[in-house]
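User: I'm putting together a small comparison set for a docking exercise, and I want a reference complex before I start. The sequence is below, and the ligand is coenzyme A. Could you produce the 3D structure with the ligand included, as structure tokens?
Assistant: Of course. I'll restate your input first, then give the structure tokens for the complex.
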Amino acid sequence: MSTQPWTTPEDAVDFGSSLFTGARVRLRPLADDDLGTLTRWWNDERFMGLQGEVVRPQPDATRAEALRLWSRNDTTGSVGFSVVDAGSGELVGHVTLWGVDALARCGTLALLVGGPFVGRGYGTDAVRVLLRYAFAELGLHRVQLGVWSFNTRAVAAYERAGFVREGRRREVVFHDGHWYDELLLSVVEDEWWATDDEETPDEDGPDGHPAP
Ligand SMILES: CC(C)(COP(=O)(O)OP(=O)(O)OC[C@H]1O[C@@H](n2cnc3c(N)ncnc32)[C@H](O)[C@@H]1OP(=O)(O)O)[C@@H](O)C(=O)NCCC(=O)NCCS
């Protein structure tokens, strides 16, 4: 990602105009109306084994409170956004950086894409947009995450967005009678700044919608 220092107010406006928009998604503040859909997706038993240490549905109010907390964006400890389709504005998920340590300049990424929207490129793009915000605006040095070893789809999305495997915690999660490892992935700022600009295209596709 190559950028130049701002010399005019228009430079700041240009930056702000594209900061939360990727090829497929836009990140926007959490709205109260999002909470019903997001908690339903989060409590979907089909996906819970991919996300949590134990499949353990929680009351909608508990899930909603966590989403609200992560998405307040008024402390240095976390940032969170609803993820919407860049063209239609339809809600497709939620992304957060939590546990941000201001001294180590490190945060942990968590992403939920709603069941109907899984596997359509939204997750990869949401991660790309959040990484740009993390490194270019929040000034983080490192973004990290953990993913269960069997979640090959998530690993593919995170690696495509720039994450690198850095380690493995052995047999940390138990599902359906078996133990599984947690893969540890991260991106550090120098790696991110060295990535190619074409990884975050802004250009529209031939039909006027964001290019896939
Ligand atoms: C993980 C998650 C965030 C990824 O977002 P997504 O929008 O589904 O991902 P994308 O469509 O952007 O990318 C998925 C990638 O996985 C690949 N993929 C799909 N199914 C796969 C599978 N079974 N095995 C390996 N790769 C797979 C796709 O080809 C794609 O890679 P590509 O872009 O290189 O072709 C989303 O699927 C999700 O929320 N799933 C449910 C909960 C979950 O798994 N959370 C992760 C907790 S760490």
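The pocket of coenzyme A is lined by residues 47, 50-51, 111-113, 118-124, 147, 151-154, 156-157, 160 (CB under 6 Å). The helical segments are 9-18, 35-42, 45-51, 60-70, 122-137, 152-160, 189-193.
User: Thanks, that's exactly what I needed.
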